[in-house]
Amino acid sequence: MGKLKTIKAWFIADANVLIDYAKTSPAILGLVAQHVGPVYVAADVLEEVDQLDVAQCLAIGLKIVDGNLVQLTEASTRGGPLSFEDKLCLVLARDNGWACLSNDGPLREACKAQGVPVVWGLEIMLALVEGKHLTAAAAIHAARAIHVVNPMFITTKVLAAFQKKVAVKSPKK
């Protein structure tokens, strides 16, 4: 996780994280928004995600945001490995001081290059476990479900590493 200055942060989620949670456990993003920090979704990114709509996002506590003209223009510049939607996530995160929730390698690298904190999709659950807002078992269950729907990026190696981190973060009795 790109070291956040505090456990409380504001986030913008990219399409891959939204899709992973929408297919498995969308309520977890709501828990993040409720207990860790606001979770924003760019309207243009949401258009890419067939599994969620505006009403569903609002119902679980996600906030829809539009870029301004300058941000949209910057995001629409051609070239490089990032899509318009990924560039928009980066620009919104940078301009607003948010962390970017993403599993996308090129987006994560671009964020780091611009000093934008980045958080892996699964790692956001660690703050919920540590804060006792989600049980370790529920976090592992959600991660396994995400692995099933997205085995290319949430590999068995990623899943095993996450399970070890959950064990460390899980509150001791």
Report a brief summary of the structure:
By secondary structure, this protein is of the alpha/beta class. It is 54% helix and 9% strand. It has a five-stranded parallel sheet, with helices on both faces.
Describe this structure in words.
- The chain contains ten helices and five strands, in the order βααβααβααβαβααα.
- It is an alpha/beta fold and 173 residues long.
- The protein has a domain at 11-124: 5'-nuclease (Rossmann fold), CATH 3.40.50.
- It has a five-stranded parallel beta sheet with strand order 3-2-1-4-5, with helices on both faces.
- Strand 4 (99-101), helix 7 (105-113) and strand 5 (118-119) form a beta-alpha-beta unit.
- Helix 1 (15-24) crosses helix 9, helix 2 (27-35) packs across helix 8 (124-130) and helix 9 (136-149) packs antiparallel against helix 10 (156-169).
- The longest helix is centred in the C-terminal third of the chain and has 14 residues, at 136-149.
- Mean pLDDT is 92; it is low at 1-7.
